[in-house]
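User: Look at the shape:
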Amino acid sequence: MKKPTMLWTAVLLALGLTACAESPTGRPQLMLFDQTQVNKMGIQTFEDLKAKTPVSKDKKTNQYVQCVAKQVLSVTPAKYQQNPWEIVVFESDQVNAFALPGGKIGVYTGLLLVAENQHQLAAVIGHEIAHVMSGHSNERLSSNQAVQATLGVADVALSAMDTRFKTELSTAFGLGAQVGVILPFSRVHESEADLIGLELMAKAGFKPEESVKLWQNMAKQGSGGTPQILSSHPVPENRIKALQKNMPKADAEYQQRKASGGLPACNK
């Protein structure tokens, strides 16, 4: 029994790699990729999507999405405003939006049926921009690479061991990495993006309380039933609780913006 125990210890130590960066919330991060490289990947992904997915030609819809996105972008740190962002509305029933490294934002028309007003759309766009600000793409790529490298080491070690349960142990290592590392990383990213996005929308002059209504709408669209431990996203109830906990701070940001005048007026 000692050899499997030692192997588990080695794998866990390898997965506990030292982080070399911090997110905007101060959370330690593992970043193995050059950000310029990640930006190029984001740009290429966006170009591929534009080639495969119809782009909306509706002038009013495009103006509306552009208006909301630009308002949110206007309150991001200066380095994210150095180059203009490309903002595209895609014709699709998907209830989704995304932002990619390299300055790309995509919004699917299906989202506009669920995000009922400019404030709710700002909550989604703020959330997606927060992923970029936090370097989540780089971190996810890095963690996946680290896990694959560790599993490779474990497989070599298992091959050298005289064990009756090599297949079972290999499967256990893979499942442990998926549930213990990869999925929790996704949930951390989503929760972090929610809170940073909440701050962004409030600073931009959008009503932060509408973020709760948005995720309530989203919950009605959900697939339902997946345990949070096996989900890449926090369950809606937990997501809403975290937003409500941080609402006083966000409302203070909104009231400050409101007092200065010039609240957004993006017409759907």
Q: What stands out?
A: DSSP finds nine helices and five strands in the chain. The first helix runs from residue 2 to 15.
